[in-house]
């Protein structure tokens, strides 16, 4: 497990009293874009750096950029040069994905000696995009003035705007979420490729690249600076807010899930530390509190890193904007940080060109082979993801180790579920039973409440590993089976094994009202299925901790088998798995949408990813569909030196023989001795 992931667990458990809540907070605390977030407190440099490393990967994963796509040729077209007094403007077309083109303008100084610092400048949600020119905002105006100041500036489109309209600005379906495809990811990738382009220009110093934008362009700026350390100075304008986290193109499923649900724009902005950052805010929008809330929060991280002098703030008395005052603050900041300019920089008068002189596709067609529809773009991204997954199919030990490293990371950021240490699991007894008890288990500081039952045999047999049974009917099924003559649970108890059962999230007595209606629900909250995987991991930790057993059995029945299959992949060694795969269509997006919906799961490798991690201890899989990747399971097991038992069906008698073979019982041993 990486240090980043281990710190994520540490932060998750350290901040709250260790007690089971009256209600599961996953039902009662539903975050959205307008939740007022608090900045978490980090007490050491190391704690922040590890949280930051985790969050950078979480941003990339939610954007569909984990793993990072291969950077193909960008085929930059730079043309239509206009020379003005002290600067020039050119039209630009970049191929950021195969067949997908990003349009923009390149503003360069004239009459100055380079190499120059570069600036990438996304525009934000203004009606005319990068062409917007009015009192509250002038995108060309800031680019002209930055060029006059001595910067090479690339102003580029958001998707759906101006030259970059092969796909709409807003789109998204559950299928897209499964494959981590969405506007935010497209725009972040465009920003990364924009940096590639600017850094490659002969008159640009690649070690002095900055970024600035306002509104949605402000979000693009701080997401870019968070994941791309080539950005050496940044000025996101009017978007670093504790109380408003942006719209559709500024978010993606799983982006703000995890930790203590504290992933606001403040935390993302702090990922710029210790590099220079200017936080520009407005008195008349959602950044009105920046001077006394968001800025001190971000400043605290810079202080931890000994770089407090590198973060600045200014507030403009205006509504949402990137106006002359805001622009001059940015000119002054970037000039001081990248040009060595002393004192304030005032804006010079400028004249904005007519649209035909700025639009790259005015009276011009995209190159042959350009993508013609959103569906084509999505299909190509899915095909690309599938190729990347198939390349990791393990056929030997070296390939298995490579696949394990890759898929463990991907599943970590899709499931956002982790097995806690036994000491981090809390419990509360509910009712005593004749041979056991009912109880609740959860994780310290997380607010979860998982109903459970613990059953002990009359004559314990240490040779039979304790067993966790996961069934859609949960505790009620386990109790019923314990009282049925030929019941599976009764059979395990009779052979001396401990049995634990749970009501996984939103099953059995854990069913409760949960508001899933908000548009950005999966941005801030985990799905029911992701929470079920976490509950199984929590229960496994409790089972191993309480029983002090090095190896335990995990038995998933009906859809509980699918939940358990993925939980086992994140549980590490010491877990035998028997899973009913419930005829789940492993290659059907509709199956995931309707039966096991977790954003990013298909992009992460789905059942194939879990197969390479499920090679420790015993494995029994049954009732698989025709499209289940059995070859991945067998090849992974063989490469790992284990054996995978795949059967068409398995009844309760088969499961009992697998969980507690007769030879492990005293009666069975005597019979074997007589033979």
Number of strands: 18
Query: What CATH architecture of the largest domain do you see?
Result: 3-Layer(aba) Sandwich
Rounded to the nearest angstrom, the radius of gyration is 28 Å
Query: What is the percent of helical residues?
Result: 25-40%
Cα(first) to Cα(last) distance is 47 Å
What does it look like?
- By secondary structure, the protein is of the alpha/beta class.
- The protein folds into two domains: 77-360, Alpha/Beta hydrolase fold, catalytic domain (Rossmann fold); 414-508 and 522-674, Alpha/Beta hydrolase fold, catalytic domain (Rossmann fold).
- The chain is built from 23 helices and 18 strands.
- Strands 1-2-3-5-4-6-7-8-9 form a nine-stranded mixed β-sheet, with helices on both faces. A nine-stranded mixed β-sheet has the order 10-11-12-14-13-15-16-17-18, with helices on both faces.
- β6 (204-214), α7 and β7 form a beta-alpha-beta unit.
- α12 crosses α20 (606-613) and α14 (488-494) runs parallel beside α22.
- The longest helix has 20 residues, at 528-547.
- It is elongated and about 95 Å long.
- The two termini are 47 Å apart.
- Residues 1-17 and 670-675 have low confidence and may be disordered.
Search tags:
single chain, disordered C terminus, 9-stranded mixed β-sheet, 2 domains, 675 residues, alpha/beta, Rossmann fold, disordered N terminus
